[in-house]
Amino acid sequence: MKYINKIFSLFAIALMAVACDPDAESYTPGGLEEGNQGICFAGNYTQTVEVEPGVTSFILTLKRSVTDVAGSVDIKVLNNEENIFTCPSTVLFAAGEATTTLTVETPSATAGILYNLKLAVSGDNVSKYISGYNEISVNFSIIKWEPIGTGYYLDGTISTFFGVDPSMPMAVKLERAETATSVRFRFDSPFARVATAMDEYGGYDGYPFNEESDVVPGKYLFTIDVTSQGAALSPVDLGMAWSYGMFSIGSVYGNLSTNIATYPLGIYNEKANCITFPANSLYIKMADYKEGAASPCANPSYLYLSGDAYLESLEATK
Q: Do residues 150 and 138 share a domain?
C-alpha cells in the first residue's frame, strides 16, 4: 500500500418490509378444532416484497401450531395481477416442522411495476383459532435501477484510523431507484481499484492509496437507502485488503446499534445533491484485526451526486 500512517486508534466493538393492515381479519388464539394443525401465514396481512433485477422468485413463510406429524394445506389464489405469479397449490410440512416456505415464481414481471398477489390457505388443517392470517396480500416489485451519471465519494472511514487525506474525491458511476419506502443509490466500490487517473472534477478512478496487491477481485456494491429517517449504507466489503485483511464498512445504526442519538443516520440534502454521513454514522472493520471488531468512524463521509454538486461544495468552503 502507498503512504499510510501506521499509528491508528484501537477498535471498539460495537427483505422484506411489512406493514399491518388494521382491517384484515385475524383471530384470537383458542383451542384448535380436533385434528387441526392450525396452519396459517406467518407475518402480517400486507407484505411488501422488493427484489433486485434478475431475481425471478420470492419466498413466503407459513407456520402451524401442531408439529408432531406431517401436514399439508391448500393454497388458493384470490388475486393474481396480470397473471404474473405462479405458486404451488399445496404446501407440505414434515413431521416436527413448525414453519415451512412457499416459493412464488415471477418470470414475466417487469421492473418498476407494482403487482399484487392475494393468497389464502384452506383445508382441514386451517383453523379459525389462530393468531396468524388465513389470507395475505403481497405487493411485489422488481427494483428498477437507472443510471444518473458520475458522483464523487469522499471517504472518512479509512482516514479515521490511518493518516490519509479524507478530502480526495473518488469518481463513481451512480444508479438510482425508487422503492416503496425509500430512494436508493448504488455504485461499485472505488476501493476495489487502483487509482490511475483523475477526471475533470479532480475525481480519482480508484483509491489513491492502493497498490495492485491490496485489491481483492470481485463485485463490491455500495447501496444507500434514503428514507424519512435518514440515509443508511448497507454493510459492504470494500474489495481492499491491506495487511489487516478485508475492509468492510456500513451504517452503525440498524447494524450494530439502535442508538440513533449517538450513531446518527446520514443526511440527504436534495437541494445540494449530497448525502453526508456525519461523525459516528459509519463503522469500519478489518477481517484480521481484533477478530473483525467494528468501530465507529470520527470523520464524516460524503457522496456528491454530481460533479457540479462536488464543485459547489468546494466553493462553499472557500
A: no
Same domain as 179, residue 97: no
**Residue listed under C-alpha cell 415451512:** 100
Q: Which domain holds residue 94?
A: 39-142
Query: How far apart, in whole angstroms, are the C-alpha atoms of residue 32 and residue 43?
Result: 20
Residue where one domain finishes, among candidates 142, 157, 182: 142
- φ/ψ (deg, to 5) at 109: -70, 145
208 plus 285 within the same structural domain = yes
Residue 313 has pLDDT above 70, yes or no: yes
The reported pLDDT for the residue numbered 2 is: 44
d(CA 227, CA 272): 17
Q: Which helix (H) or strand (E) holds 110?
A: none
Count structural domains, the chain: 2
The strand pair at 274-277 and 267-269 is best described as: antiparallel
Residue 18 reports pLDDT greater than 90: no
Q: For residue 167, what pLDDT band results from cuts at 50, 70 and 90?
A: very high
Produce one character per residue of 211-242: b if its CB has 16 or more CB atoms within 10 Å, e if not. Answer: eeebbbeeebebbbbbeeebbbbbebbbbbbb
Q: Are 60 and 101 in contact (CB under 8 A)?
A: yes
34 falls within a domain: no
pTM score, whole prediction: 0.81
Cell of 219: 463485485
Q: Where are the alpha helices (DSSP H) in 18-113?
A: none
In angstroms, the Cα distances linking 196 to 163, 201, 203, 207, 244 are: 21, 15, 11, 9, 24
Cα(130)–Cα(88) distance, rounded to whole angstroms? 23
In a domain, 58, yes or no: yes
